[in-house]
Amino acid sequence: MKPPTGLSAIVFFAWLSVGLVWSQAPGGNAARGAQLFKELRCSACHSVRGQGGSSAPELGARPGQPYTPAMLAGAIWSHVTKMWEAMERAGIARPQLSEQQVADIFAYLGGSSSGADKPGDATRGREIFEAKLCASCHDDPYQAPALHSKTGRTGAFSLISGLWNHGGGMLSRMVSRNLAWQTLSPEEVNNILAYLNAGK
Asked: What does pTM read for this prediction?
């Protein structure tokens, strides 16, 4: 897959930046999430509370242990390239996911959004933004748009939605520049979100 160039690159990264801006995290519906999990064929590889595939990790929340939006975002971000490869081998089309759909799936997994994630540190977030090579494109207006929210806030669900919908183009662009895909821990996700929401 060739990286987007010229006008197509501008349009692509504009879509990504818009996808990361939201005013309020949507509440999830576990029943809709369960249906989506099957329809999108997540269950072909992953299981939730013992139901589903066995070729990929169990995704359900473990009793008595926290499971937060940042934990889901970090896990997906860190392993998404392997998921895409597995989906391609299995002939599973890569779906588009809205923030609401991400929230619904998260609810089905048994996660908790209510005060679960600790506030991030914007200063540390800036350092991570640079260390994880995000700034190599997003601090250059000729490469990609700034991801700071102009209005509203950026959250873990919008981060997942933006990654899932546009990550293929991001990966292609990184490969073309010989940049390695980066992993993110939940703490790093929270810090980056704090930085993006703080503005410049």
From this structure: 0.80
How far is residue 135's CA from residue 129's CA, in Å, rounded to a whole number? 6
**Alpha-carbon gap, residue 115 to 46, rounded angstroms:** 27
d(CA 145, CA 140): 7
pLDDT in tens, 72-126: 999 999 999 999 999 999 999 888 999 999 999 999 999 876 656 788 999 999 9
Alpha-helical (H) ranges within the chain are: 6-19, 30-39, 69-90, 99-109, 122-131, 135-138, 156-176, 186-198
Quick one: CA dihedral 155, 156, 162, 167, positive or negative? positive
Q: Quick check: 23 and 152 in contact, CB under 8 A?
A: yes
CA–CA dist 65, 172 (Å, integer)? 36
